From TrEMBL:
<protein>
    <submittedName>
        <fullName>Aspartate aminotransferase family protein</fullName>
    </submittedName>
</protein>
<dbReference type="InterPro" id="IPR015421">
    <property type="entry name" value="PyrdxlP-dep_Trfase_major"/>
</dbReference>
<dbReference type="InterPro" id="IPR015422">
    <property type="entry name" value="PyrdxlP-dep_Trfase_small"/>
</dbReference>
<dbReference type="Pfam" id="PF00202">
    <property type="entry name" value="Aminotran_3"/>
</dbReference>
<dbReference type="GO" id="GO:0008483">
    <property type="term" value="F:transaminase activity"/>
</dbReference>
<comment type="similarity">
    <text>Belongs to the class-III pyridoxal-phosphate-dependent aminotransferase family.</text>
</comment>
<keyword id="KW-0663">Pyridoxal phosphate</keyword>
<dbReference type="InterPro" id="IPR049704">
    <property type="entry name" value="Aminotrans_3_PPA_site"/>
</dbReference>
<dbReference type="InterPro" id="IPR005814">
    <property type="entry name" value="Aminotrans_3"/>
</dbReference>
<dbReference type="InterPro" id="IPR015424">
    <property type="entry name" value="PyrdxlP-dep_Trfase"/>
</dbReference>
<keyword id="KW-0032">Aminotransferase</keyword>
<keyword id="KW-0808">Transferase</keyword>
Length: 445
């Protein structure tokens, strides 16, 4: 075999090559078929090879693929911003386009800081976040991320720091139970604000459901209402990082709609183009843009490929497809079925501790003992074992972390394309059952 010069996530590991995809399936160059049970990285939410998107891509390429946003605007980017303004809750009417989720959260940080500067509050520059979170891999977005492993190597470069605990009822950080806990995980934000001083804080950022760093953690009822109230009373903006949860993934167009809480800024990525091209967005409310419009009139961020017509045309085609096929509603109803079926795994396996999620974003947390909830020792690498065994069985799922402080626990995300049929969901359930059974047997627990 020819030596590869491609830097892969794990350099010395052998990777299969994918030749093509169709619907919920991917095929490798050896002809093996995989059910894409995680939409890649929770991204390909309308499945692979959708003709309408390919046609839109082709049509736009025939017109123009790139214009520089500082010289010109373009029709697809204008239409995409219009569409997102229609879809987004409340007055989140403004879109700033970037290329990745990391850039979207980083832009959100910058806009939040700039907002307060335009209002003359130059000291309000800290962005607070939670442990067990992932907001991206660039230095700014990694600063916000409470993902201990991904931070470790770069700590000297990381400026902001997560300050509060996640709303993680399965392992309550305060050893309490809901509702007697009185949402201490939310009120901890106020304690942190009092310690740091609200005069120094621009915003608080959350993933509506904790994804890669928590295995689809769903906060308890009332949590976000309380968070919104604390932010308002302390004049702190609320940023929702909907890079993973947005565009229908959890059964609502935006996950924050589950709690009827409107953030001031939303970061989008992944599902926005369903993986057909790189594009992401930072959505901003009228009230945030207003002082910038009347002030410096310029958002100090952006990239060469920001708002390029090619990616915008693709994202528009994806949103049209999602609406035409009622995929947000489908995500809700299919999610109820899949979550219910996967929750049966808690009775069938001794290593399945918790199954949780909303819509088609479902997390499974593995434990060495379901009574004590003790995570497996790190060197067991249970997540890896499950991911690899699933791949052997022709099923793709997404690795996650969970457990005590999110450093020593194992979890996976099940997040198939929203287009998945009932037959395909049954195939997914069967393949995942077979996989976990094989791993559990190999662990001899
Ligand atoms: N925010 C969240 C919630 C994510 O899940 C991710 C990626 O997994 C990101 C941000 C970073 O997005 P990207 O990998 O596109 O930079």
């Amino acid at each position: 075999m020819m030596r590869s010069h491609l830097i892969k996530p794990i350099l010395d590991e052998e990777y299969k090559q994918i030749s093509h995809g169709s619907g919920v399936y991917l095929y490798d160059t050896d002809g093996k078929k995989y059910l894409d049970g995680s939409s890649g990285a929770v991204t390909c939410s309308i499945g692979h090879g959708v003709k309408e998107v390919i046609n839109a891509m082709h049509d736009q390429a025939k017109k123009v693929s790139f214009v520089y946003r500082s010289q010109f605007t373009n029709e697809p980017a204008e239409r995409l911003a219009e569409k997102l303004a229609q879809l987004a809750p409340g007055d989140l009417n403004w879109s700033f386009f970037v290329n990745s989720g990391s850039e979207a959260t980083e832009t959100a940080m910058k806009i939040a800081i700039q907002y307060w500067q335009e209002k003359g509050k130059h000291q309000k520059s800290k962005i607070l976040s939670r442990w067990m979170s992932y907001h991206g891999i660039t230095i700014g977005s990694l600063s916000l991320s409470g993902h201990t492993e991904r931070r470790a190597r770069f700590v000297p470069l990381l400026d902001a720091n997560p300050v509060i605990s996640p709303p993680y009822c399965y392992r309550c950080p305060f050893d309490r139970t809901y509702p007697g806990c009185q949402l201490k995980c939310a009120t901890e934000l106020e304690t942190a604000i009092n310690r740091i001083g609200s005069d120094h804080i621009a915003a608080f950022v959350v993933e509506p459901l904790v994804g890669a760093a928590g295995g689809a953690i769903v906060p308890p009822a009332g949590y976000y209402e309380k968070i919104r109230d604390i932010c308002d009373r302390n004049q702190i903006l609320l940023i929702a990082d909907e890079v993973m949860t947005g565009i229908g993934r959890t059964g609502k167009m935006f996950a924050m709609e589950h709690w009827s809480v409107q953030p001031d800024i939303i970061a989008l990525g992944k599902g926005l183009s369903a993986g057909y091209t790189p594009i992401a967005a930072t959505l901003v409310s009228d009230s945030i843009i207003e002082p910038i419009l009347t002030g410096s009139k310029l958002i100090m961020s952006g990239h060469t490929y920001s708002a390029n017509p090619q990616s915008a045309a693709v994202a528009l085609a994806v949103l049209t497809y999602i609406e035409k096929h009622s995929l947000v509603e489908a995500s809700h109803s299919k999610g109820i079925f899949l979550l219910n079926e996967l929750q049966q795994f808690k009775k069938k396996f001794t290593i399945v501790g918790d199954v949780r999620g909303k819509g088609l974003l479902i997390g499974i947390e593995f434990v060495s003992n379901t009574n004590t909830k003790l995570p497996f020792k790190k060197d067991c690498k249970v997540t890896n074992l499950v991911i690899k065994q699933a791949q052997i069985n022709g099923l793709l799922i997404y690795p996650s972390t969970a457990g005590i402080e999110g450093v020593s626990g194992d979890a996976i995300l099940v997040a198939p394309p929203l287009t998945i049929t009932e037959t395909e969901m049954n195939e997914l359930i069967y393949l995942l059952y077979k996989t976990i059974k094989e791993v559990e047997d190999s662990l001899q627990v």
